[in-house]
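Priority: low. Protein: Uroporphyrinogen decarboxylase. Input follows.
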Amino acid sequence: MTDIKQLQKDRQQLFTDLYEGRIPKRVPIMYNIGWEAAIQLAGYDLKQAQWDNSIVYDVYDKACSRLYGDLIPVAMTLRNPMHYQMLGSKAIIMSSSGQMQHPEIACLEPSEYDEFIQDPYKMMVDKLLPRLYKALDVSPGQRALALGKAFKAYNDEAGFYVGTIGKIVEKYGYAAIPTHGFGEAPFDFLADFLRSFSGVSMDVRRMPEKVIEACEAITPHMIKLLVHMNPNPSVLKKAFIPLHMAPYLNQKQFDKFYWPTFKKVIDAMVEAGQGVDLFVEHDWMRYIDYLADLPGRVRMRFEYGDPKIIKEKLGGKHIISGLYPLTLLKTATKEECIDKAKELIDILAPGGGYMFEFDKSALSMDDVNIDNLIAVTEYVRDHAIY
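Result:
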């Protein structure tokens, strides 16, 4: 037990040093496989296991006994099917394979922009959520009952998972980086569930001023979610923001629709002392200078990009992770996989500000060769010294 506690203390120090701007003793390893992948790794049926809390500890334990990470290498489920089924969700549904998926869907009509801009919260509650969740498309009393039941189910499930993760963290001596919330850039929020990818792509051409006004209207709500609902902010307390739409916009569109309100959100978070954790999806190399100018010490997980340019632009200020292609673990030899890790470490580790992570998480065990994953993470653990 003493050895585990010391291991946990050492791992915690790696991340404390990293986030506070010091050079850790070695490169921290932060990644996770999706909950669905962990279920498969533990040998359970995906569709059945997501409804069975009795196997949750065993799934975590079996996965963590095989995978190395300085943080727990299995994600907590973000899309438990129970409350989505109770709400009659159209926005998050289970596929025939058992994966929870987000189909292309819109609930805000182009003709409703003015109403939305006037009071986004009221419209989301009164009109948009009932369009996304059939159980809320009822009388106010029935809606309150359905929402209350689903909310309790969600909290009960979340509490159970958090408790189980706590036991696993103590058993294996993982570091614990507290998280606070999940949010989006205002333009991404508009594109995600409200207007859809295709819908907002038309709107920026047909009604650009309405899109700008809608993003401005969303911004205070996103700041409230990411800043004001966190009573004890810290650079070690990260809020997660995945960045979706920017790579699909041209320069003028990015400057006009995406960056201004996103920058307001990040400025508010940093000013409040809140940690920021960005998943830089797809290829942001056209906009790397914008990311470099963000305030604070932001952790950025890159899906694609030139590691040398990213290091040149961000090194010394922000924290870089990602860029290791998950697909390589499926298609390459063990030696080739380790060589890729060496290449990225040589470029990104000097001077600090780097944690090892894959470019994306494995959502299925079909995404990776588990032996290659283990070999790469163990190599980084043993050889990635600053």
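The chain has a mean pLDDT of 93. Residues 162 and 191 are 30 Å apart (CA to CA).
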